[in-house]
């Protein structure tokens, strides 16, 4: 790819050099980040770093060679050991981070969709948690995004039903800085001098999901892909995320996840961030074999909502089922934070049947082959 960037005659030499430097920096950052990640995984499961399928590894390296002359085999080995699958299309994490994701989601205008305070502007459906108070760059706003004073914030806080949730409305992930508050006094203290936060209702989850973990919200991650071939939306994969030992459902925070098959059934086991496999939830003893209720309506709803999102071809939505059996959306991830290991550790290439078209598109229309602002 380095030579291809340099020899790209469609760009002036100045832009080629600029793109090459950016690509080298991103590639290096990806290699460092995932090298560190896999060292931690191999410390827990040393067997994951052993070769199981020599021919499969050769096919895997050949398949992804357009993006790297020396494909890191770690992703393939971990997926191979956990799932038993030898699919060469398992997408290396470093290549996804440096090549695929920025080529498919290559417009910073999509950052608009990541701001939680603006969710309510781009979809007419009442699927996100009810919002009460926003702060955007130091400005307090009410539920209609109208400017209010801090005195009015206090008045609203005193009229709310508790508990409520306060969290950052941008640049957040992994459940960081999310707080459940039980009184107006607590909320006022949290809001004072705080920038870029949102106050929302606390969603009560349906009993079906309580049986896995009732100490927090268990969410479903739905990854959608807008095809480069015809612009139609497709659900790539769906995963149930659950808390463990009082943790949040994010696997980075200690939670576990179980892939949901195309028929709506869980795939029989859950995994943590190191690839440790559980056939029953360690806290509740519930197995991972049941069908998720009303999953078809969730897939339909996420497609409708995602139709309002432009400038990105990969969109990840986090959903939950509320006490009234209605699907709600908790969060949208547009530019980044698309976790590919949920599907891949469970034996499915992240892009599944669309892998070949994505590979070809990104090879020919790689972000580093185009002029950047």
TrEMBL record:
InterPro entries for this protein: ATP-grasp (IPR011761), ATP_grasp_subdomain_1 (IPR013815), RimK-rel_E_lig_ATP-grasp (IPR039523)
Q: Which Pfam families match?
A: ATPgrasp_ST
Q: Which residues form the ATP-grasp domain?
A: 125-359
Q: Which GO terms describe its molecular function?
A: ATP binding; metal ion binding
Q: Which Gene3D superfamilies match?
A: ATP-grasp fold, A domain
- The name of this protein is ATP-grasp domain-containing protein
Q: Specify the species.
A: bioreactor metagenome
């Amino acid at each position: 790819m380095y030579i291809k960037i340099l020899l790209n005659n469609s760009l002036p030499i100045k832009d080629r050099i600029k793109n090459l430097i950016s690509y080298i920096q991103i590639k290096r950052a990806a290699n460092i980040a995932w090298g560190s990640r896999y060292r931690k995984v191999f410390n827990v499961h040393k067997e994951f770093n052993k070769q199981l399928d020599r021919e499969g590894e050769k096919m895997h390296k050949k398949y992804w060679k357009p993006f790297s002359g020396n494909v890191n085999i770690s992703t393939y080995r971990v997926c191979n050991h956990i799932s038993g699958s030898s699919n060469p299309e398992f997408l290396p994490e470093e290549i996804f981070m440096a090549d695929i994701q920025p080529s498919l989601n290559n417009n910073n205008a999509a950052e608009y969709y990541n701001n939680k305070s603006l969710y309510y502007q781009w979809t007419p459906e009442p699927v996100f948690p009810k919002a009460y108070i926003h702060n955007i760059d130091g400005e307090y706003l009410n539920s209609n995004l109208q400017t209010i004073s801090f005195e009015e914030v206090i008045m609203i806080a005193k009229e709310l039903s508790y508990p409520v949730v306060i969290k950052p409305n941008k640049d957040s992930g992994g459940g960081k800085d999310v707080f459940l508050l039980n009184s107006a006094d607590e909320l006022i203290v949290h809001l004072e001098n705080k920038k870029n936060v949102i106050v929302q209702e606390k969603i009560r989850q349906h009993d079906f999901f309580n049986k896995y973990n009732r100490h927090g919200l268990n969410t479903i991650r739905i990854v959608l892909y807008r095809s480069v071939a015809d612009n139609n939306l497709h659900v790539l994969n769906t995963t149930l995320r659950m808390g463990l030992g009082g943790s949040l459902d994010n696997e980075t925070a200690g939670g576990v996840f179980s892939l949901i098959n195309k028929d709506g059934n869980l795939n029989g086991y859950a995994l943590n961030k190191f690839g440790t496999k559980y056939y029953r939830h360690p806290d509740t003893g519930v197995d991972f074999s049941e069908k998720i209720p009303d999953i078809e309506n969730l897939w339909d709803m996420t497609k409708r909502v995602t139709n309002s999102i432009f400038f990105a071809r990969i969109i990840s939505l986090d959903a939950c089922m509320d006490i009234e059996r209605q699907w709600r959306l908790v969060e949208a991830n547009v530019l980044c934070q698309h976790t590919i290991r949920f599907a891949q550790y469970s034996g499915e290439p992240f892009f599944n049947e669309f892998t070949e078209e994505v590979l070809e598109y990104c090879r020919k229309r790689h972000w580093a082959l185009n002029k950047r602002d």
